[in-house]
Structure formats: C-alpha cells, structure tokens
Amino acid sequence: MWAVLTVVVVFEFTVGGTLSKCLNRGSATLLAGALGVGAEHIARLCGEKGEPVVLGLFVFILAATSTFMRFFPNVKKRYEYGMLIFILTFTLVAVSGARVTHILQMAHQRLSTILIGGATCIAISIFICPVWAGQDLHNLVAANIENLAVFFQGFGVEFCSCPGEECSTVSSKDDKDCRSYLQSYKKILNSKANEESLVASEFQPTITKMSTESGKALQELASAVKNMTFPLSTVEIHIRNSKDAASDLRSILENPSFPSKNMDLQEIMPVLVVAYVLTDIINCVEKLSVHVHELGKKAGFRYIKVTN
Asked: Which parts pass through the membrane (predicted)?
C-alpha cells in the first residue's frame, strides 16, 4: 500500500519534479521515522500511564514546529511537501508504536515499500520518455522578461496620456495599445491598480524616459537569455540613460521651488510614488543585467559581433 501511495503522490510530469518530490519524501521519511522510534522509546520509559502523555507532547511540539516552519517563504517553496510528509510519518510511527510491539520491524517495512515506490518513479521518469523542464524554464524566464519590457516601454506614455477615465476617450488604436501594455503587465504581476491622477507636465519627460529606457534594457536582456547570447553594449547605454533620467527627476524634487503654489499635492502624490517605484526598478534592471552576464559566463553564451 505504501509503495502505491508513494507512486501516486511523487510522480510528476518532469524528471526534476519527480526527483525533488522523491528526495523530499525519502529524507522526511527517514528523519521522521528515526525521531518517531526515539520518541516511542523515551515514552515507554515513563511507564504505562505516562507513555500516552509523553507521545502526545512529542507529537504536538514537532507537528506545531513543522507547521510553523512551512510558512517561511524559502521553506514553503522548496520543502513544503517534505515538511508535510515529516508530520504525517512522525505521527503515524509514534502513535502506531504505542499499539505495535515490533516497532522497528514496522518502520523497516514501511520505509522499504516507500523506497521501492520512489525508485520506480525515478526509473520511469528518467528512462521512459523523460521530460526535462530546462528548456521550458528557459523560455518562461525569457518570456517574462520580455513581457515586462513591453509593459515598461509603453507605461510612461500611457501613464501620462490616458490615466483613469481619459482612457475611454482616446482612439481605438491607442486603446488597443494601452490594453496591450496592461495585459503584458498582468502576465507577470496580476496587478489591478489603476492610476487616476494627472501627471504634472514637468514630470512627463523624465518618467517616460525612465520607463522606456528600462523597457529597452529588459528587451535586450530577454533577447540575450532567449538566444543564449551575451547582452549587447546597448543594455548599459539604456540603463545609464534611465539612471540619468532618475537623477534629473531627483533634481526637480530637490529644487527649493518645488512644489509650486498652483500644484495640488493630491494630484502629484501618485506621480511621486511611480517615480520612486521606477527608481527601484532601474536598480533591479541593473542587477538583472549583472546576473545575466554571470549566467552567460557559466552557461557558455555566445558573443555577437556588431557590424556597422
């Protein structure tokens, strides 16, 4: 029964997914089984009346600790399945040990059947029509970066020209473009935010430049990842242009005459928030460029000769 259950829960479409679940289940079963046997041995030393109390205390402490650890992002992303198996296995071994005389034999039998099921899944995944997720992951990363690039290239213009209800008054072509940019954005972030304030005229060039230059840099990085080539030198130019625009915007904000008397703070506050977010995005794009170069060195990306 345990072998069949193992095959059902750990078998995945890709080889990597199957290996990950098998390793999680195997390590969690070994650790939980050993702790369960140890907890049962300690509980028996407390006598017939104290054994259920000690076992209940052990189960509560370990189950509560494991459940709490599952909420940590890093643990949840990689080891959530293993933590779940750990809780179930420890509880089964500890509680069953109170009613079974030969607990070591029971633990050995269950572990053997689980290993048989896991080995069967791994063998089938690797040797019978294996599916590796490397290419899919590669294409997905490139597509996500490209979608972000499409959004940022149009965000500055759309934010300045058709905020809020004014989007309904623009031409059909502009409306399609606006929806296209927002659709690319939703593919990554699934955001539902909608800016409703007008942008002050002095912010339009800087915000537009910050957004479009970041989008162009992301477009180059997406192409580099997709084609497995080192990014062109134009990426650094776009990043530098976006940083220059951010510096210009910072100079405007640090000007003693800002804000002027005819400006409404409620109208310019969304613009300031967008400018702050774009500044962080520029830093992230710069870090992404560094990581893509490091990836290219490790993965053996090709250099492209630029012909004039």
From this structure: 53-73, 79-101, 113-133
